[in-house]
Design goal:
The protein is α/β, with parallel strands linked by helices. It has two domains: 4-92 and 172-317, P-loop containing nucleotide triphosphate hydrolases (Rossmann fold), CATH 3.40.50; 106-170, no CATH class. It contains eleven helices and twelve strands. Strand 9 and strand 10 form a beta hairpin. The protein is globular. It starts with a strand and ends in a 6-residue tail after the last strand. It binds adenosine-5'-triphosphate and iron/sulfur cluster. The site of iron/sulfur cluster has 13 residues, from loops. Residues 15, 17, 22, 24, 42, 44-50, 60, 62-63, 212, 276 line the site of adenosine-5'-triphosphate.
Length: 318
């Protein structure tokens, strides 16, 4: 059995806004094994990014982690000082964001950004850092002369490769990739995903892939974690989620995947996700659930283990 790398327990992340307290991640527990890719899926606003950024404690000023623990390789990241968590970012956890143009410094050459990241974390000479930066670029399929390019001189796919080089240059244990291919065309999307999968094997790293696209997660990730309205509703190996989704929300997501080969009726999940400043009582999915019973609106179901590595949060399974 593979070793647990990341263990998130009863995590609560709230935003304190003028509209009230937005409970974006509410009591979520999740484990990620080493060398595993977990797809974190759900509709917009379900709390996926909040969960991802909370791991490295990179939240906007209104966001606060109000409870729980995040243990990476035996270390509770919530107990670290600001200086200590800064060392974890980049070195132990690499981040790949959706839009490299806004996350890369437009005024700095790609090489300088890579070298700066390396020098910030490792005690190496500038010459060694340059060599490592060139290697990191080659690792993501870019020629080393790209070190001299500015971000705007690269294509969208190349920029995303640079982001991945920045995230992997220090060989982190975990990579958090937030919608890494959403801004790219389908062919480039596929290549970037191939690259992430091959880096996972080569660097023996784990990946949390944040995506609204459950078919992408089903294709690439080992496991899928389904979030809805700040709760984790199902967590299981990807093949089981696809062949036998248990939670009514997961069933809805799977049924809404179009199939290019088979003509099938696409069933959309009716209704909209709730306002997390005022979420529904009981099961947060109950206003949209076709199987809701009286109890669903009154009591929140617990998340239960329903098989090897299978978890579901729904009264139908307790
Ligand atoms: P998306 O795919 O659209 O990014 P998501 O599933 O990643 O969605 P989050 O971005 O984590 O969801 O948002 C979860 C909830 O937290 C939403 O209700 C959102 O409105 C709220 N939220 C996110 N960022 C902030 C913020 N800076 N201030 C207040 N509320 C926020
Ligand atoms: Fe539907 Fe009830 Fe299950 Fe929630 S707990 S998903 S409302 S059946």
């Amino acid at each position: 059995m593979s070793k647990t790398l990341l263990s998130i327990g009863n995590l609560k992340v709230y935003y304190y806004t003028n509209r009230g307290v937005v409970r974006a991640v509410d009591n979520v527990s999740l484990t990620v094994s080493s060398r595993e890719m977990v797809g974190l899926v759900g509709e917009s606003g379900s709390g996926k990014s909040t969960l991802g950024y909370a791991i490295v404690r990179l939240l906007p000023p209104q966001g606060r982690i109000v409870g729980g623990k995040i243990v990476l390789d035996g270390k509770n990241l919530l107990e670290l000082s600001e200086a200590e968590i800064r060392k974890v970012r980049g070195k132990e956890v690499g981040m790949v964001f959706q839009d490299p143009l806004t996350s890369l410094d437009p005024l700095q050459k790609v090489g300088d950004q890579l070298i700066e990241t390396i020098l910030e974390h490792l005690n190496v000479s500038k010459k060694e850092a340059y060599k490592m930066a060139a290697e990191a670029l080659m690792e993501v399929g870019l020629p080393p002369d790209r070190l001299n390019s500015y971000p705007h001189q690269l294509s969208g796919g190349q920029r995303q490769r640079v982001m991945i080089a920045l995230a992997t240059a220090l060989k982190p244990k975990l990579i958090i990739a937030d919608e890494p291919t959403t801004a790219l065309d389908v062919i480039v999307q596929d290549r970037i995903m191939d690259l992430l999968v091959s880096l996972k094997e080569e660097l023996k790293t784990s990946i949390i892939l944040i995506t609204h696209d459950i078919s992408l997660a089903a294709e690439r990730a080992d496991k899928i974690a389904v979030m809805y309205a700040g709760h984790l509703y199902e967590y299981a190996p990807s093949d089981e989620i696809v062949s036998k989704p248990l939670h009514p929300y997961t069933q809805g997501l799977i049924q809404s995947i179009p199939d290019v080969f088979v003509r099938k009726e696409i069933k959309e999940i009716k209704g909209n996700p709730p306002d997390l400043a005022n979420p529904p009582s009981g099961c947060r999915f109950h206003p949209r659930c076709p199987y809701a019973i009286e109890k669903c609106a009154k009591e929140e179901p617990p998340i239960v283990n329903v098989g090897k590595e299978r978890y579901v949060k729904c009264w139908l399974y307790t």
